[in-house]
Automatic annotation (TrEMBL):
Region (Disordered), start-end ranges: 16-50
Keywords: ANK repeat, Coiled coil, Nucleus, Phosphoprotein, Repeat
GO-annotated cellular components: nucleus
Keyword Signal among UniProt keywords: no
Provenance organism: Coprinopsis marcescibilis
Protein name: J domain-containing protein
Subcellular localization(s) per the UniProt record: Nucleus
GO biological process: negative regulation of canonical NF-kappaB signal transduction
Transmembrane segments: none
Composition-biased stretches (Polar residues): 23-48
Length: 370
């Protein structure tokens, strides 16, 4: 019972060992208080019937100062809380409102950035379109200027050619006679005339073959397998048309030029004259000699070679000699001409067959030389 009484006195006394001694308030410096206490060293004297024994609370000479504290002094010992401090309570509504305002600011900033970017793109597109329109106008003006300059140059060239063709002599910017330019134009006109004649000669050759093939097919003759250039194709057989017409040696389109006409390019340059001379009797161009009929003796290597190769010298021609010779070999092959020889008069059939063989032999020599 004595021990229980001692424990009860300890629990009911705030200044007992369980609660610690009451600290003394130190001198205040500024607006902060410093607490000073005097530690005491307990000294056990052994059990004397008390619950926890007997202690000697003799103060020592050493003193200690508590650190700065915002706690107020209290007589409750170590079981105390800071005064004036309220516990923080999380406000969900306020946090949601703050987050919503932050989201609004971010959306507004993004919308402004997107609007600025869209405006910049529109301005850039407008600038590109304006530059493209300006370039188109400049290109149109440049093309118009080039066309005008080319047209003026063409008109000037035609005027100079007409003047030279009529026998005149050109003059330079200083008014002096420009003999060199005049001679150059004369040579150009002469070359054009030669090229024109060679082109027309080859076109006439292809058209004659076309008429001959059509005649054979119209009469239902078998064995006609000849390739003819479609660009020279005619629509009818012309003067060979008729059921009773029989072919002669001269009706065959032999690959040579009639003997009465110029037979080489060198002769063409030497003999072709560019003149507007008229005959005194009827005011018409001077008469030319009539072409003679082709004979078997005219089918020589020189004549055939000149006839086939001369058109290839025309400016702009893309056909090679090998192509021309090989195509001619296919056309003049005897097996492909059986239908044509069937239309020849019996009295001249042997001569035509001999002429075909002569042409084939020449073409074979030309092909071997390539």
């Amino acid at each position: 019972m004595a021990n229980l009484a001692s424990a009860s006195s300890l629990l009911s006394n705030p200044t007992s060992l369980l609660f610690g001694s009451t600290p003394k308030k130190s001198t205040t410096t500024g607006d902060r208080s410093r607490l000073q206490y005097t530690p005491q060293t307990p000294r056990t004297t052994g059990l004397n019937g008390n619950l926890f024994g007997s202690y000697d609370w003799t103060p020592t000479s050493s003193t200690s100062t508590l650190p700065n504290s915002t706690f107020a002094s209290s007589s409750l010992g170590y079981f105390m809380f800071p005064t004036g401090v309220q516990p923080t309570v999380f406000d969900a509504e306020k946090a949601a409102r703050i987050q919503e305002e932050e989201d609004k600011r971010e959306r507004r900033a993004k919308e402004e950035a997107d609007a600025a970017e869209a405006r910049w793109k529109r301005e850039e597109d407008d600038r590109v379109k304006a530059e493209a329109a300006l370039k188109a106008v400049q290109d149109t003006l440049a093309k118009s200027r080039e066309a005008r300059v080319a047209s003026e140059a063409e008109q000037a060239r035609e005027s100079e050619e007409l003047w030279v063709q009529s026998g005149g002599v050109l003059r330079g910017p200083d008014g002096q006679r420009d003999l060199e330019k005049t001679q150059r134009i004369r040579e150009e006109l002469r070359l054009r005339e030669v090229e024109k004649r060679l082109t027309e000669r080859w076109e006439a050759y292809e058209k004659r073959w076309r008429k001959l093939v059509l005649l054979a097919r119209d009469r239902g003759v078998a064995g006609v397998d000849i390739d003819v250039d479609s660009q020279y194709a005619g629509s009818d057989a012309g003067d060979l048309d008729g059921e009773d017409v029989m072919l002669k040696f001269a009706d065959i389109p032999w690959p040579i030029e009639p003997p009465s006409q110029v037979s080489s390019i060198a002769d063409a340059f030497a003999n072709i004259t560019i003149s507007t001379a008229k005959s005194a009797s009827n005011d018409k161009p001077a008469a030319v000699s009539v072409a003679k009929e082709v004979e078997l003796s005219d089918l020589t290597l020189k004549n055939i070679q000149e006839f086939l190769y001369a058109p290839l010298t025309v400016r702009g021609s893309t056909i090679s000699k090998k192509q021309r010779v090989r195509k001619s070999l296919l056309r003049w092959h005897p097996d492909k001409l059986t239908g044509i020889t069937a239309l020849v008069e019996p009295s001249e059939k042997a001569k035509v067959v001999e002429g075909v063989h002569a042409v084939v032999r020449v073409l074979q020599k030309m092909n071997a030389a390539l």
